[in-house]
Amino acid sequence: YFDGDKLLGAMRTHTFTMNVHGVDMLAGGVGNVCVDLTHKKEHIAKEMMEHFHGLYMDMGASMVLLWPFRSDFYMKMGYGYSPKYNKYMYRPADLPRGNKKGVAFMTESDVDDLLTCFNRYAAATHGMIYKKRRFFERFLQRYKVVGYRNGDRIEGFIGFNFKKLLPDHPLLQNIEIEYMVYENPTALSRLLAFLQTQLDQVDQVEFLTLDDDLHYVSSDPRNGEPHIFFINQESNVQGIGLMYRVLNKRLFFEKLAPHDFNGVSLRVKFNIRDSFVPENDGPITIHFNDGKLSLGDGFDVEVTMNIEYLSSLLMGVVDFRKLWTYGLVQVSDEKHVEALDRLFHVVKKPETIEEF
Q1: What is the CATH number of domain 2-82?
Q2: What pLDDT is stored for residue 293 in this prediction?
Q3: If I label 127, which of 40, 172, 259, 274 is the partner at 20 to 30 A Cα–Cα?
């Protein structure tokens, strides 16, 4: 962002292919948004975000995403929450013992197989973004990477680093896992067996993951912190991170034509408020027939909501009933709330593992 020849702001954009309910969609990402400290509160960030949205609308993207420095700031621009990220911390001795056959450190010769493994997982997982080869070239430089190979296929891997707990204590450290991908239970069990055998040199294994149920893999689900509330002991901590935004609701719905919305039949008029992207503001009527959608006229129920809540709803982050209960959506006839809840419910929430 220039004022004449003076640089006042900058941002970095990213172009992704994203699995949304089994449909590969073009998506845009934005990061490193910054403004000259002497020119803050002059709407520079707003103008840059407007440019970003316009750029990806012109490219034909229906979805954009970002990592916020403040969620409330970007929610005002129409960005909705993604699932909460979890941090679990378990002693290696509490992880399951098992067979480590096929487990080994990955090297440069494994880059193509790591890429193939990851993109197979992305193709099977709602919310995932496909990687390119250069990502794994850098990945091996940034992390220690241990993978599980079944024959000639890598079917799971972890990317981790050792984290010193005290600057003057070289023997006290944790393993911090930032990437964990596995395609089947065997791959997971082999990787956990590897981590379990690190008990002589590692105090705790830290898992950073979107898995809400990982405490089941540890014989002691407590994370080692002395926190208790209403007789509940802390098992993990959670945080709000990545945010999704439907940039073009009509195109987004059209792209989701192959998706089955749980067999529900209902005609819905969505009255969507989007003050930041005026082209995306206003009503759209969708007919769901046995779970398949089409654009149409006439409706059984009207639903009024902001674009940030529609974004989280369509991505399967939150159920419709929750939004309705919290007063974040309005329904013209409450007898349709149950059907609307079934319409957008997902078995597994989106999983987006992407740094930008």
Answers
A1: 3.40.630.30
A2: 97
A3: 274
Q: How far is CA 162 from the centre of its chain?
A: 25
**282 is written with which tokens?**
């206003």
CB 241 within 8 A of CB 81: no
Q: Given CATH 3.30.1360.20, say whether it is the number of domain 248-344.
A: no
Provide the 10 A C-beta neighbour count for residue 329.
Answer: 22
Determine the average pLDDT of the residues in 276-300: 97
77 close to 64: Cβ distance less than 8 angstroms: no
For the whole model, what pTM was predicted? 0.92
Q: In this structure, which CATH number among 3.40.50.150, 3.40.630.30, 3.40.50.970, 3.40.50.1110 belongs to the domain 86-239?
A: 3.40.630.30
Domain range summary for the chain, segments of one domain joined by +: 2-82, 86-239, 248-344
Q: What pLDDT, on the 0 to 100 scale, is given for residue 342?
A: 98
Q: How far apart are CA 124 and CA 93, in angstroms?
A: 32
CA dist list (Å): 294 to 67, 254, 261: 32, 7, 12
**DSSP H helices in 197-306:** 249-255
Does the pLDDT of residue 171 top 90, yes or no?
no
Angstrom distances, CA of residue 137 to CA of 107, 112, 166, 232:
9, 9, 31, 43
**Residue pair 351/82 in contact by the 8 Å Cβ criterion:** no
The token pair at 72 is 């409330």
Q: Does the fold of domain 86-239 match that of domain 2-82?
A: yes
For the cut 90, the answer to whether the pLDDT of residue 168 exceeds it is no
Q: At CA 69, angle to CA 350 and CA 276, rounded to 5? A: 75
Task: Tell me how far apart the alpha carbons of residues 317 and 83 are, in angstroms, rounded to a whole number.
Answer: 6
Facing residues of 161 across strands? 176
Report residue 72: phi and psi, to 5°.
-65, -30
Residues 174 and 165 sit within 8 Å (Cβ to Cβ): yes
Q: What is the pLDDT of residues 301-323, one digit of tens each?
A: 999 999 999 999 999 999 999 99
